[in-house]
Each structure stands twice: as structure tokens, then as C-alpha cells.
Design brief:
By secondary structure, this protein is mainly alpha-helical. It has two domains: about 120 residues, 23S rRNA-intervening sequence (de novo design (two linked rop proteins), Up-down Bundle); about 40 residues. The chain is about 75% helix and about 0% strand. The protein is built from five helices and no strands. Helix 1 runs antiparallel to helix 2 and helix 1 packs antiparallel against helix 4. The termini are far apart.
Length: about 180
């Protein structure tokens, strides 16, 4: 699926959810005062979705990858601070919320890694590098690859069906 806007990206939606929930968590209990931990946790959480958005809007795959790795680093930073909070006596009444946020930050990190891996294996350099000819070539190759995948699937199904028939046919009499 091709996404036209960063707001449609599942990973951006997860990152936005992470930031919203971190902001909610840091409004209560031990976080209900200004301070370095609260402020840094909020900045790091917001940084995940912001870097996804900025990379998406840049126009080259190389820049997108750079920002995805920054976003992933921010997700790791959030997770590290949440792990600290998980063992912090002042936040003991927030263990469940902290655990849920750790899981959400891990999910964001996995999604970012998978996207980055797929981009690294792509020949596309990004929208900024596409012109009419490269777009046509890319689309033609994409259609050819899809067609070959369909052919492979049909061949595999026929081989499977032939094998099944062979196993169920009675042996021929010897003459």
C-alpha cells in the first residue's frame, strides 16, 4: 500500500498514541511537577512521531531512513526512561500504565525497524528523484514482479494438486 500522507501511516499513528499517553501519564502522580524526567520523557515521546513526519515529507529515501532511525532512537529513549520509572518508588502506583507504554514504544520501534529494512532493500531513491521515465520503469517492474508472483503461485498450486492426485491414484497392475 502506498501512503500519500504521514498521518495515514500505521507507525505514525502508534507514535502519536505513544506521545498522547506519555503526556497523560506525566500529568499525574510523581510526574505532576515540572522537572527534567517529565520534560525529557515528553520530548522524546513527541520526537518519535515528529521524526516520522519530517522524514516522510523530505522526498528522498536516504533522508527518510535517517529520520526513521532518529525516531527509533527516540522510541528507545522513551523506553529507557519508562524502565527507570518502572523501578522508581514514587511511580509504583503507575506500574500498569508504564508497562503498557513500554510495550507501545517497543511496537513503534519494531515497526520503524521493519520499514527501514524494507527501504534499505529498495531501488527507489525517493519522490525527489522520480521523473516520468523512472516512474514508468518502476511501475512496469512492480507490475512484472506481481505477475511473476501470481504465476509462481499458480504453478505451486498445480504441483501440489498433481502430487495429491498421484498419492491417491491406485497402483497400475503389472502385466
Amino acid at each position: 500500500m502506498k501512503y500519500e500522507r504521514f498521518e495515514d501511516l500505521p507507525v505514525w499513528k502508534s507514535a502519536k498514541e505513544l506521545a498522547v499517553k506519555v503526556y497523560a501519564l506525566t500529568k499525574v502522580g510523581a510526574f505532576n511537577m515540572s522537572g527534567d524526567l517529565r520534560d525529557q520523557l515528553r520530548r522524546a515521546a513527541l520526537s518519535v512521531s515528529n521524526n516520522i513526519a519530517e522524514g516522510f515529507e523530505r522526498g528522498t529515501t536516504a533522508e527518510l531512513l535517517q529520520f526513521l532511525y532518529i525516531a527509533r532512537g527516540s522510541a528507545g529513549e522513551v523506553r529507557s526512561m519508562l524502565r527507570f520509572c518502572d523501578g522508581w518508588p514514587d511511580a509504583s502506583d503507575l506500574k500498569s500504565e508504564i508497562s503498557n507504554l513500554i510495550s507501545l514504544s517497543e511496537s513503534c520501534s519494531r515497526q520503524l525497524r521493519a520499514w527501514a529494512d524494507s527501504l534499505q532493500n529498495s531501488d527507489i531513491q525517493g519522490q525527489r528523484h522520480l521523473n516520468g521515465q523512472t516512474r514508468r520503469t518502476y511501475e512496469s517492474q512492480r507490475r512484472a514482479d506481481a505477475f511473476l508472483k501470481q504465476v509462481d503461485e499458480v504453478v505451486r498450486q498445480r504441483i501440489d494438486a498433481a502430487g495429491a492426485m498421484e498419492r491417491h491414484d491406485p497402483p497400475e497392475p503389472h502385466t
